[in-house]
Amino acid sequence: MSSIYGEITINDFDTLQTLDGSALKEFHEFQDFWLACAERHMSLRPKSPPPEELMKRKQERNRKSLVVALNTYAKRNNMQITDLEFVEEKERNLVGGVAAGYVHSNFVAKGVDGRPTLFFAEMLHGCFLQEHVILCTPLEDTDSGCCFGCNQHARKLRHPTCGGYLGGLEDVPFPYVEEDSDDDCFLD
Ligand SMILES: [Zn+2]
Fold it and tell me: What pTM did the predictor assign?
């Protein structure tokens, strides 16, 4: 007989045949008990939200993190945070650095005159506070900074030529992927 988690598989039926009546009854009782426990365990597990809900939450988390980056840019340049309005994210990628993983993003924001500007932002991966924003800066048409991480996975993502970002400077793989987390603490 062999068993694996979540399923009982009986390979040696001959052995089962040799059990006497009471042992066989005991075995079936144990099997019923085990299955009842497994079903109860499954029914207590919280149901995962549908994929479209997870995608919506992920987009909302990304949007909020970029609003933090944009506000950080405004504060560091003595602007009012109301001077800039986040519009949409264009590209996003995770890259490796010497000490941490970083998010690289291109997003569009518009000023009070309504003119759209493409920004580059680098933030610590999974962090949403202003001190986690390494760099947030508008891009010029001529900007074409090098990034090994985005070169491989997000070739359209543009970086400032003058640098200032910490991730993607060396050709090191980033071993993580951004998960469709259903952790909604960030939405509070
Ligand atoms: Zn990059």
Answer: 0.69
Lowest mean pLDDT among 69-83, 127-141, 165-179: 165-179
Q: What's the CA gap between 5 and 98, in Å, rounded?
A: 40
For residue 106, what pLDDT is reported? 98
CA of 92 to the centre of ligand 1 (A): 9
* Residues 178, 105 contacting (CB under 8 angstroms): no
Rounded distance from Cα 102 to ligand 1 centre (Å): 9
Closest C-alpha to 177, from 119, 101, 120: 101
Report which listed range, 8-22, 67-81, 159-173, is most confident: 67-81
Instruction: Specify which residues 119 forms β-bridges with.
Output: 107, 138
Both tokens assigned to 83: 């001077």
Q: Ligand 1 centre from 94 Cα, in Å?
A: 8
Rounded distance between C-alpha atoms, residue 148 and residue 102, angstroms: 13
Q: Give the start-to-end residue ranges of the domains of the chain.
A: 2-44, 51-187
CA distance 25 to 61: 54
pLDDT in tens, 1-45: 444 454 445 455 555 555 677 777 887 887 888 788 677 776 776
